[in-house]
Amino acid sequence: MRATADRRLAIRDYISERRHTTIAELIQEFHVSKSTVLRDLEALTENTSFYTTPGNGGGIHATEGGYASRRYLSANQEALLRRLETGLQTESEKKLMESILLAFAKPTHE
Across the beta sheet with 50-53, what order do the strands follow? Predict the structure, then answer.
């Protein structure tokens, strides 16, 4: 049972990070059958922020602003850090700030 729970969390995180995927992509990524992916998605829909759309160009989409697996900076927090970044003196401070922003700023997907 642990493997199932772990896979479902991994699928949730995959959808959250990628923002859009398909059942075929999940089958390939997680090396499971279509019926397993469908069962996993059904189990996840109760407490996960994603929705499905049918047809060409459809698939599984993360809801706007819904990030399941990570905590991100708020827009105000990120803006403050970006302002502070301009005043950093050393290259090592700048690299450290950039690593913080890369790790915790909400990704922008167009």
Answer: 20-21, 59-62, 50-53
